[in-house]
Backbone:
């Protein structure tokens, strides 16, 4: 007598496969959400470390570092290679060995110690461009981007003729401190997210120095720039706003469209003049350098008191502007 043999029928096999497919379809979004939550937590921790490094710098020197130190005694110069905030706080990010090998008194673009150097705390794990190294055709060192910029205020950044700066916490040749933040440290931005490899226009415009109020206004200003680049925030040691900072001109993650070479760029920035270029004869700098991230619907930002929070894309623009000023005397409620 033959023993009975048990096996799946074709219908049963198809049912099992369908059930497995449904379970995978249900679990995959949950796994992706869990991974993004972990990346956001790491991003928030990076901002916390950067904020604490700025605090420790302030404790050591009784001021915050300038965005750059530019030479206004000259009237003709190439691009400014001054070190920005990212380079000046290295000793307070456990990067003392790197700091000892560089010279902040001379331009960063001739110093081999930073060639190919990646500072992990400057890279958001959700930003795919954060690990893409930038190489140059000349002898400048290869650089990794930064995914975090410092607060340059609302719109105006720097005028070399009057040596005046904007209303944020950083601008060239000025060492601000807590006493300069009249709006309160818990209401003022210190640093926030930016996207590596952001496209931008520079060294031209704006058609008006009035701060733009709409996306159309911003796009008109972007179009007034005369030099297109797709390398924003790719030079972590550089002190110019399009690499080291952001402005609160537009809400977080705003679309500012611009077409170059037949390609439409959805998120574009603008800087009217590279700070330090042509020294005292340079033009004033106005900038739309928007805080952006790859987190859905928000950016992470650290305030001057060191606290880190998520800022929704839908934040009221007046509140966002107020968070970007250090002494605007605004009353901020329900951030």
Residues:
């Amino acid at each position: 007598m033959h023993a009975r043999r048990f096996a799946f029928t074709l219908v049963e096999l198809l049912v099992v496969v369908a059930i497995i497919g449904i379970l995978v379809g249900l679990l995959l979004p949950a796994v992706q959400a869990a991974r993004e939550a972990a990346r956001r937590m790491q991003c928030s921790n990076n901002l916390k470390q950067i904020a604490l490094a700025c605090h420790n710098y302030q404790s050591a020197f009784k001021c915050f570092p300038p965005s750059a130190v530019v030479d206004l005694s000259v009237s003709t110069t190439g691009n400014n290679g001054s070190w920005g905030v990212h380079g000046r706080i290295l000793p307070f990010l456990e990067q003392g060995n790197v700091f000892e090998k560089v010279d902040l008194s001379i331009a960063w673009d001739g110093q081999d110690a930073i060639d190919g150097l990646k500072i992990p705390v400057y890279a958001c794990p959700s930003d795919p461009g954060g690990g893409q190294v930038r190489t140059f055709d000349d002898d400048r060192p290869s650089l990794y981007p930064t995914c975090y910029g410092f607060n340059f205020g609302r719109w105006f950044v720097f005028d070399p003729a009057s040596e005046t700066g904007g209303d944020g916490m950083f601008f060239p040749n000025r060492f601000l401190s807590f006493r300069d933040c009249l709006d309160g440290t818990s209401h003022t931005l210190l640093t926030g997210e930016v996207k590596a490899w952001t496209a931008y226009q520079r060294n031209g415009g704006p058609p008006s120095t009035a701060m733009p109020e709409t996306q159309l206004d911003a796009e008109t200003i972007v179009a007034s720039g005369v030099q297109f680049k797709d390398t924003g925030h790719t030079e972590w040691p550089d002190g110019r706003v399009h690499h080291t900072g952001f402005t609160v001109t537009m809400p977080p993650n705003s679309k500012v469209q611009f077409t170059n070479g037949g390609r439409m760029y959805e998120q574009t920035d603008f800087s009217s003049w590279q700070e330090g270029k042509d020294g005292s004869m340079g033009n004033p700098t106005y900038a739309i350098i928007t805080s952006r991230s790859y987190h859905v619907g928000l950016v992470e930002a650290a305030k001057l008191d060191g606290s880190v929070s998520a800022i929704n894309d839908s934040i009221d623009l007046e509140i966002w502007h107020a968070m970007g000023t250090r002494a605007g005397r605004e009353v901020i409620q329900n951030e």
